[in-house]
Amino acid sequence: MSTPEQTPPPSHTPDRARVFVVSGPTAVGKGTVCARLRERHPEVFVSVSVTTRDPRPGEVDGVHYHFVSDEQFDELIDNDGLLEWALVHRRARYGTPRQPVEDAVARGQVVILEIDLQGARQVRHSYPQARHIFLAPPNWDELVRRLVGRGTETAEQQAERLETAKRELEAIKEFDEVVTNGEIEETVDRLVELTGL
């Protein structure tokens, strides 16, 4: 007869909470990949970040991000309402609302946190059960092409983001898994495999 220490935990206990951090350098396609994953698996909970930056063309509040004022962001920090938060590119703050993530974990859902490197590092400490997946570009030239092709930043902002991307790529060894984002369907197939969907 097994002792309590030898008995394996049920598949959806808090110890086996299926929370996955998807991070990587700017313009690698984190948002596109996570959106496609959710299209294929609507049961996945993809956390919607809050941000103090202005919406880009086509972005919808509550879908792509929750767009908030600096005062609202401060209130979330003061009330421990964020699982992580960071100042990105010295321009705007981004954060992951805590309550929706905890609610999804309690329901036994697979949870995806699509966040930048600073946020991923915070989650490693604040939620150590999470698995960390680094989304990498096929090569540097392709990352540059994607960033410039977005057309959402000035030349100065692009240069700044590329400098940030170089530092972010150096953090690849901090992650549990690395997925190269070349062809989107293959990338999503790999995420499905890693998350056990």
Characterization of the model:
This protein is of the alpha/beta class. It has a single domain, classed as P-loop containing nucleotide triphosphate hydrolases (Rossmann fold), CATH 3.40.50.300. The chain has 7 helices and 9 strands. It has a 5-stranded parallel beta sheet, with helices on both faces. Strands 4-3-6-5 form a 4-stranded mixed beta sheet. The two termini are 33 Å apart. Residues 1-17 have low confidence and may be disordered.
Alpha-beta classification:
alpha/beta
Q: CATH homologous superfamily name?
A: P-loop containing nucleotide triphosphate hydrolases
- What is the string of helix and strand elements? EHEEEHEEHEHEHHEH
| Global morphology | globular
List how many beta strands DSSP finds: 9
Main beta sheet, described? 5 strands, parallel
In DSSP terms (H or I, runs of 4 or more residues), the helix count works out at 7
Beta-strand residue percentage: 15-25%
Instruction: Provide the domain count.
Output: 1
CATH topology: Rossmann fold
Q: So, CATH architecture?
A: 3-Layer(aba) Sandwich
Low-confidence spans: 1-17
Roughly what percent helix?
25-40%
* CATH class designation: Alpha Beta
Mean pLDDT: 87
Spatial strand arrangement across the major sheet: 2-7-1-8-9
Radius of gyration, CA atoms, in whole angstroms:
17 Å
The CA-CA distance between the termini, in Å, is 33 Å
